[in-house]
User: Fold this.
Amino acid sequence: MSRAYRLKVSESCRRVLRGSDHVSTQLEILDVLPREAMANLLAKELVAQGFEEECEGEYARTENGVTVRVVAATGEVIVEAEVSSEEEIEVSRTGSYFDETNQKQREELKKNLEQQAEEALEDEAQRREQKLVNKATDQLEQALTDVQGELNKVVNRVTATALKQKAAQLGEIKEMTEDEETGSLTIVLEV
Assistant:
């Protein structure tokens, strides 16, 4: 008479899981002045808004896990969100074999259960990583509205500064009115 024997295999690991998402866009900056001059004005305005130069011509700022990068020369904007978490993942698999004297059957079952446990461990890690990606996407969506509004104001200030410089090159400025709330700028000059 055979008796059933249970075999349990457990696998665990500790991993740092990461989830990220990003979006890129282009600032619409008018070429009022030569491109290099416009890039310099943009760089100055970005620094005034708390951006730091990471490498030549690229400015970045990170807040609440969201990084905003702007390439001053091209106006390219990349907004990235990254979330990471150190996770302990454990899985176990159980199976039965019927003959205690048949070591081959026991070893085959053990090998099969170990493989299933490793696959389950990998699946669980991917599932948790996808949750982190979703969390990063949520953070990105929340930050995009604020970033877009802020960068629109930066572009308006850069354009206004460029228009003032261009007007000064063209003639003598007689009158200038500027409304920062609406972004309107009126320049009267004598040529």
The chain has a mean pLDDT of 88.
